[in-house]
Design brief:
Elements: E1 8-14, H1 18-29, E2 36-38, E3 54-55, H2 62-82, E4 93-97, H3 100-116, E5 121-123, H4 125-131, E6 142-146, E7 150-151, H5 154-167, E8 171-173, E9 178-184, E10 187-193, E11 196-205, H6 211-217, E12 225-234, E13 246-249, E14 254-259, E15 262-267, E16 273-274, H7 293-306, E17 315-325, E18 332-335, E19 342-346, H8 352-369, H9 391-404, E20 422-423, H10 427-432, E21 436-440, E22 443-448, H11 465-477, E23 480-483, E24 488-493, H12 497-504, E25 516-522, E26 528-538, E27 541-546, H13 551-560, E28 568-571, E29 576-582, H14 586-592, E30 606-611, E31 614-620, E32 628-634, H15 638-647, E33 651-653, H16 655-664, H17 698-706, E34 713-718, E35 730-733, E36 736-747, E37 752-759, E38 768-773, E39 776-783, H18 793-796
Parallel strand pairs: 1-2, 1-11, 2-8, 4-13, 11-19, 20-22, 23-33
Antiparallel strand pairs: 3-7, 4-6, 5-6, 9-10, 10-11, 12-15, 12-16, 12-17, 13-14, 14-15, 18-19, 21-22, 23-29, 24-27, 24-28, 25-26, 26-27, 29-32, 30-31, 31-32, 34-37, 34-39, 35-36, 35-38, 36-37, 38-39
Helix pairs in contact: 1-5, 1-8, 2-5, 2-8, 11-16
């Protein structure tokens, strides 16, 4: 193995765990033959070596599932390619349910598996017992069997990946620590090591537990923190012969399988233990933390109940190994917003080995081709608000994240730790109105109002159903206030403002000052990077309104395409509040607040007016399908404006009401119907694109038009009024899966449950389909376009409109 590092490498991978090894392997396979991997100690010496290494394919999205399916395929063929055994054992997994809600949860997973092409079937308690004879099944209500799942030897997999990388020219340098990451003009340009300095074009930061400190060397935020993670190993016991499936008893926070003739019993307890700063220093090599039987005892009692054979088993070891977790439980994969050329592949949340094959491929793809192989926006590092990157907030949050691994995925579930980090200008008023808050990009946003107690988590009709119904009714019959203050706001100013935005945006950005423009920002493939609205304030001044969690991503995209344009980009999100006054009484309320002339503002236009003695900018548009204005004011003036509107009869409405009304109108949303795999044509938004082109992605859009691309987003109205769709359910035409739901709610104005979704084949308006909700098919009718007020008469007219 070479000891002297080269003077230059196209890409430097930092970290010799599963993510670093996989990234190096895939970089080499993609032609980056001079890529190198730097490991401070030895390959796998951080956390990879002690991973339980379960590889379970099914995840909550198609692309995350596809990513792990890639891992399964890679691990199963590496030995043939490299001659290095990987210890791939494909004995499947068995997920049991001991509560009705868990049974619903696993049935939802089994239904989703059908849509994603993953084999998963519900089995009887008797069959589950046959597959795991040592299991006490007295309290088991049902189970799901997934035969393709398996496990590997993590150290052997890394050895095989590195061997494959070396065969393609890449190099590994162990015992080579990173002492600094060099940057120039906001881009990485080299890495300082204990063996010398290496210049480079890009860095793949796969440093696991130490990635936060390494990122800081390059001026980048990497919000992750380590927790203690436990599993028990026993000596051989009777009844274990050969390899077993993995048994998942998530109601008791456990996973179990064989290990060398004995048992491995691991847990994701409801509240983990964060590791104090300074414990995991550079000397932590193939290290473990002290056993903590007091902490593990509740899990041990659960395990004894599930596996009575443990009562007489001899304990070999209670392994306590560190694992890194992020504030939301998803990993980080992609380029940072702060530093060009710095790519993260870390924060794996204890699923690094399962994800590593596909995640490493996607990280290499992002470095080589400028994008992941498919949309992985859930893992984009830019999704975190800077406020999360503090030791205090991370140590509070990550123990809860560890526990969420085995929580039931209830709709509306909110995390309880690291809350109240960012408050809206009207936070006090909303809490006085008994708002139930949800956290988004660190902001506390009202989900619904009138809460009298903490809502019960359920898959059935939610506790807030009537609260949301009242808010929708107010917006539909009188007037409601929807707070959009947390949306990102980016001012684009300068002589080249128009030509720049016409380059990066596909909409009609050349419209005159006073216009509101809905537009997509596309990539070269003609798929979405973002969708936003722009207000042209002057010839040389636009204000862009982007999604709450999209501000870092969108601002980064704009900045990285602004070279050569005389423009200034300013994040002014916290300078302004935005209140949407919507409903047939909006005009009367605005008049009562002294907003002279506001009714003269045309649809998709904006103007400055005075309202409640406050200077505001009112824009005529609607995200909920009712007439009104989105009113922007200085954040400090929000209370005066809100007080005036509520005294005139408007009531606050939360995010749940807004979502229901959005879906009724068929309005697509980023992260649901729109992502970097979807074109505006597929989303039914071709009408919002400039036909003359001249924007990023225009060539790809024209090619799609030429090939006859059509809309793939539909709405479905369900017949069963008691059905509770949540999104991520398969859509059937007859017995064939034709798509998946992407957004779901009860449609209060259309009087039934409603979903939006993507289809893989053309479905006509009125076609009969069904949606599989936890194993039960619910029939419904396809709607092409808005289900409510399809002509848009209500939101375009300030005069009351019937319907």
């Amino acid at each position: 193995m070479p000891k002297d590092v080269p003077s230059h490498a196209s890409v430097i991978v930092i970290g010799g765990g599963i993510m670093g090894a996989s990234t190096l392997y895939h970089l080499a396979k993609m032609g980056v033959s001079d890529a190198i991997l730097l490991e401070r100690n030895k390959l796998t010496s951080g956390t990879t070596w002690h991973s339980a290494a379960q590889v379970r394919a099914l995840r909550h999205s198609r692309n995350l599932t596809q990513m792990i399916q890639y891992s399964v395929d890679l691990y199963s063929r590496l030995e043939k390619e490299t001659g290095q055994a990987v210890g791939w054992i494909q004995e499947g997994s068995l997920s049991i349910a001991t509560t009705p809600d868990r049974l619903t949860h696993v049935r939802r997973q089994a239904a989703l598996a059908q849509a994603f092409g993953v084999e998963a079937t519900e089995v009887s308690v008797g069959e589950a017992k046959e597959r795991w004879p040592l299991m006490n099944a007295d309290d088991v209500l049902g189970a799901v069997w997934s035969p393709a799942d398996g496990r590997v030897s993590p150290s052997d997999v890394c050895a095989a990946l590195v061997k494959g990388a070396k065969n393609s020219g890449a190099k590994l340098f162990e015992d080579t620590g990173v002492t600094g990451i060099l940057t120039e003009n906001g881009r990485v340009c080299g890495v300082e090591t204990t063996s010398g300095t290496v210049t480079c074009d890009a860095v793949a930061l796969c440093g696991g537990l130490w990635s936060r400190e390494l990122g800081a060397m390059a001026g980048a935020s990497v919000p992750l923190w380590p927790c203690e993670h436990f599993y028990l190993l026993t000596k051989p016991i009777d009844g274990i012969t050969g390899n077993t499936p993995t048994l998942s008893d998530h109601d008791n926070h456990l996973y179990m399988r064989d290990d060398s003739g004995g048992l491995l019993v691991g847990c994701f307890e409801p509240m983990g233990k964060a590791i104090k700063p300074g414990i995991l220093d550079e000397s932590f090599e193939f290290g473990l933390l002290p056993e903590d039987w007091d902490h593990f005892e509740p899990m041990m009692l659960n395990a004894l109940k599930r596996l009575p054979a443990l009562e007489t088993a001899e304990v070999k070891l209670l392994l306590n190994g560190p694992e890194s977790f992020t504030p939301d439980g998803d990993f980080m994969l992609g380029e940072t917003s702060e530093t060009k050329g710095l790519f993260l592949g870390c924060g794996m949340n204890s699923v690094g080995v399962a994800s590593g094959g596909g995640a490493g491929m996607n990280l290499a793809h992002a470095i080589v081709y400028g994008r992941t192989a498919y949309d992985l926006s859930d893992a984009d590092p830019k999704r975190f608000a800077p406020v999360f990157d503090s030791v205090e907030h991370l140590m509070a949050r990550v123990p809860e994240i560890l526990g969420t691994h085995y929580e039931i995925a209830y709709p509306g579930r909110q995390l309880s730790t690291a809350r109240d980090l960012r408050r809206l200008p009207l936070d006090v008023e909303y809490r006085e109105a008994k708002a139930h808050m949800g956290q988004f990009y660190g902001w506390e946003r009202p989900l619904y109002f009138g809460k009298t107690a903490e809502p019960e988590m359920t898959f059935g009709k939610p506790n807030w159903f009537d609260n949301v119904a009242a808010e929708v009714r107010s917006a539909h019959e009188s007037a409601a206030i929807f707070d959009a203050s947390s949306f990102g706001k980016i001012d684009v100013e300068g002589p080249d403002a128009e030509v720049f935005l016409r380059h990066v945006c596909a909409g009609q950005l050349g419209r005159a000052p006073g216009s509101v423009i809905y537009t997509a920002m596309l990539n070269s493939r003609g798929t979405f990077e973002s969708d936003l609205t722009a207000q042209r304030i002057a010839q040389d001044h636009y204000r862009l309104f982007v999604g709450t969690a999209a501000i870092a991503r969108d601002l980064s995209w704009l900045l990285r395409h602004s070279d050569g344009f005389d423009v200034t980009l300013i994040d002014c999100t916290e300078d302004y509040a935005v209140l949407g006054l919507m409903g047939p009484e909006a005009t009367r309320i605005a008049a009562d607040c002294g907003a002279d002339g506001i009714e003269d503002i045309a649809y998709f236009k904006h103007a400055e007016v005075t309202m409640a003695s406050v200077r505001v900018r009112a824009a005529r548009l609607s995200y909920v399908g009712e007439a009104g204005w989105e009113i922007t004011c200085a954040a400090k003036d929000a209370t005066v404006l809100y007080d005036a509107m509520t005294k005139a009869g408007a009531v606050p409405a939360g995010l749940f009401a807004q979502t229901s009304m959005r879906i009724e109108k068929g309005f697509c949303a980023m992260g649901h119907e729109l992502d970097s795999d979807t074109t505006p044509i597929a989303a039914g938004l071709d009408f919002a694109l400039r036909k003359a082109g001249g924007y990023i992605g225009a060539k790809a859009i024209e090619q799609a038009r030429t090939k006859g691309a059509v809309t793939q987003v539909i709405t479905v109205l369900l017949d069963d009024l008691e059905a509770v769709p949540l999104g991520h359910e398969p859509i059937y035409s007859g017995d064939t899966v034709v798509g998946e739901t992407s957004s779901a709610a009860f449609g209060y104005r259309v009087g039934c449950p409603i979903v939006m979704g993507h289809t893989r084949q053309t479905l006509e308006h009125g076609a009969q389909v069904s949606v599989d909700i936890a194993g039960q098919k619910h029939h419904g009718r396809v709607v092409i376009g808005p289900a409510f007020d399809p002509e848009g008469a209500r939101m375009r007219s300030l005069a009351p409109v019937n319907g």
